[in-house]
Design goal:
The chain is mainly beta. 4% of the residues lie in helices and 49% in strands. A hairpin with a 5-residue loop joins β24 and β25. The longest helix has 13 residues.
Amino acid sequence: MYIKIIPSILMSLLCAVLVAQEATEIYLFDLSEQDDQITISNPINISNNPGYDNQPSFTEDGLGILFSSFRDGQADISKYFLSENYRVWLTNTPESEFSPVAVPGKKKYFTCVRLNEDETQYLYKYAFKKKLPELLIPDLKVGYYLWFDPKTVISFVIDDIETLQVSSFKFKIRYPIQSNIGRSLHKIPNSAGLGSNLISFISLDHESPEIYSIDPLKSTATYITDALPGSQDVTWTSKGTMLMGKGNTIYKFHPGIDKEWQAIIIEGDFIIDGVSRMVISPDGSKLAVVASEPAM
């Protein structure tokens, strides 16, 4: 029997995971992509924190990684400095903050989804230096989001009918482009050969989840491939290859070249399990991976 999982159920499951403080860590790998082979190596645990550490994103210069990390029963935002190999806390608030992303073209600011004490959930802009946060998109309960360009945010909006919406700060408009999608939203590099100015999303409108590209300005969606069963997260290399994790394996798929998902090489004897979110540095040389915290 086919059971359709609607986005509101997904969000409830996500909230349950956060409340339970799922035990995850964030590992940073070196990434090499040569011809049709991808290899990752030299893992470093950059969170090294008991409990929930998740939702990493690189700063625009590739020198830092922002992520959400639990302490004292709630989530704050941390930053890891690659060259210095250390982390700092950026927030220390009564609210919980998730999904931090550097604002493109604005080195002094980052955004994150803030879960307020009154259970409202909005997208806020924070300064790296101590300033009061700014509510960025009023009246929209944001679950996940992506900066499309410095003036445009693509966000998964939680409402009576959940939608993927475009918010243009330049033209002061917003409009829906899709519904019933997964949490993973990414810009597709031109090197993927699918076109320009596209993002990828996982559609849940089918019996098995499918990965699509979409032009957020024209709302035109095109099928790419089926998602790995049970997986929710993808990312793209600078050479246009999609990565997706499942269990203790990371797979690759390059549109127009690969016919099916292929396992990449993880060098050494490092054991990783419960792979979920992944993100690649702007220069394509590093891969941050969220995985289950090792059992003690």
